[in-house]
């Protein structure tokens, strides 16, 4: 049976952002929800840190649009996830309990994803950004959402290594998801071409 070149490929797009969002822009959570929705509408899988705040609203948007949402938890078990880390269970089709705490979870989260979109965040979001940056994954930055998005460009500029990673920017969630998926297509094609 013939299929399109991308028949088997479902992109996994991580949405990273703050669990506590008091410092974010007024509409940051609405934008997070729209990010999740747009990821789902394009047939991609949303991956988050199975947490509250910005990622939670992205997961909510994906599920409301009929998409697939996977969470990677810092906890070892569901009980620990809920009772020790105080993290949610809803709006995720599956939660993977890494047992590695936040730093280990962050590494697994970005490595399991084909691309990373960051919204308003704090130090954990910055950690996920730098891992994705080092891994040369496409990264989307949701402008005007607050937090880390206000100075990530300065970090890239001062690192003197910006040419190695594709980073796209937009304040509109729909446009940003489109840019990230466009950045993914050549990478998937080149991986599929290897070994043929």
Question: Any overview of this molecule?
Answer:
The chain is of the alpha/beta class and 196 residues long. It has one domain: Rossmann fold (3-Layer(aba) Sandwich), CATH 3.40.50. The protein is built from 7 helices and 7 strands; from the N terminus they run E-H-E-H-E-H-E-H-E-H-E-H-E-H. The protein has helices at 28-41, 53-64, 78-83, 101-111, 123-134, 152-159, 173-193; strands spanning 12-16, 45-48, 68-73, 94-97, 115-118, 139-142, 167-170. The chain has a 7-stranded parallel β-sheet, sandwiched between helices. Helix 1 packs across helix 2, helix 1 runs parallel beside helix 7 and helix 4 packs across helix 5. The longest helix is centred in the C-terminal third of the chain and has 21 residues, at 173-193. The relative contact order is 0.17. Residues 1-8 and 192-196 have low confidence and may be disordered.
